[in-house]
Design a protein that fits this description.
CATH architecture: Clam
CATH class: Mainly Beta
Number of domains: 1
CATH superfamily: Lipoprotein localisation LolA/LolB/LppX
CATH topology: outer membrane lipoprotein receptor (LolB), chain A
Number of strands: 12
Largest sheet: 12 strands, mixed
Strand content: over 45%
Order of helices and strands: EEEEEEEEEEEE
Radius of gyration: 18 Å
Distance between the termini: 34 Å
Shape: globular
């Protein structure tokens, strides 16, 4: 695909702690570049620099995305993260809202991982990710459900470009040493 646009819902729950938090977000991906809006912040990765914009704090952090950081499922790795570091096997098939969803169970090879396993739900017809369910070692269940999956949409040429002039009055922190 030239680009992919996703709208998603993220639910974090821990029944033993009586906690449930639901948030929505969206992301546009094109090659290595992405723009993510989630939980009150925006992340723009232009292929080299990562800009994390937090309007509630009037702060922007500029850094270099570490592609090799284990355990970090970044938007640019979201559709391919399962290819390394996991043992995976077919799991159940469920009919969800008239869609046949085939689950893959991904168990981390690293015994020190912060989660027990991931269930990756794939729509059997479209072959697109429907949802991702991560079961944490502490009993926390995180479910990311894709509400819309669009491909090859017309996007602005500046979507992945950070424009400092749009953020007057923001404190900008550059974490790169170079």
């Amino acid at each position: 695909y030239e680009n992919i646009s996703l709208d998603f819902k993220n639910v974090l729950e821990n029944t033993s702690e009586n906690m449930r938090q639901e948030t929505r977000g969206d992301v546009v991906l094109s090659g290595d570049k992405y723009r993510l809006n989630f939980n009150g912040f925006t992340r723009i990765f232009d292929g080299k620099k990562l800009y994390t914009i937090v309007p509630s704090d009037n702060e922007i952090t500029v850094s270099t995305e570490d592609e090799n950081e284990e355990g970090d499922i970044t938007p640019s790795k979201m559709l391919l993260f399962y290819e390394t570091g996991f043992v995976y096997k077919m799991d159940i098939v469920q009919n969800i809202k008239g869609r046949k969803i085939q689950y893959l169970k991904l168990t981390p090879i690293d015994s020190n991982a912060s989660f027990k396993y991931i269930l990756l739900g794939i729509d059997a017809e479209t072959k697109h990710i429907y949802n991702l369910i991560q079961i944490g070692n502490n009993g926390t269940k995180t479910t990311l459900t894709v509400n819309s999956f669009k491909t090859n949409e017309p996007i602005s040429k500046t979507l992945f470009t950070f424009d400092k002039s749009k953020y007057e009055g923001y404190n900008i922190y550059n974490t790169d040493l170079d």
